[in-house]
């Protein structure tokens, strides 16, 4: 019995060690929080085992972190306010920059999800994206934005990168910007519709003018050839007269006040 108890000790110790240990997932970095609430500066890399019997481990997703920025209403180059402007930003954190960003930057720059993962600089990136959108949108008229989507995405990304460089945030990389909805204001869309309608009406009138011009040219041509027409009519009448004289045409003369035929019976 004593021997069996001794055999169980390593198993229990292993189970205890595993339950008191946290493994850092792929794409994450960890930081240890000591029992006195201080945060160690050394980053815990993915795959490492870290005891949590004393203190705890904070985890930070650092790869392809997505930030959705929605319902923006930037001002366009034509001074109209966009009805809606949405985009998504993908960014990455350098593993060696995690402790500096978490310890030395304002906690308001970060976000935390329900599982406890902390998204470093998530709120900061969101605000930086907003500022970039409002700056870039001023270069484009509302109705031209969708036609320049790729260029706008590139300019927003470049503006964000410039801001990060100015702030010496070299541990953050903005890898992608994807613009979603870009909707002009109702007034701008209505003006565009009115313009299209006016252009269509103008084209219709141009067609009508061309038709009238062709008809006028036709009538003018007929008037110019009035003598030729009279000559052809006289020729036709002469041919008819010749045919009658030759007995080739049987003619029935009908009085102009002819009202019909009546039966005449002999008595």
UniProtKB/TrEMBL annotation:
This protein's record includes keyword Signal: yes
Keywords on record: Signal
Band domain ranges (all copies): 22-216
Record's signal peptide: 1-19
Residues that span the membrane, as ranges: none
Keyword Signal: yes
InterPro entries: Band_7 (IPR001107)
Superkingdom field: Bacteria
Protein name per the record: SPFH domain-containing protein
Protein source organism: Pseudoduganella guangdongensis
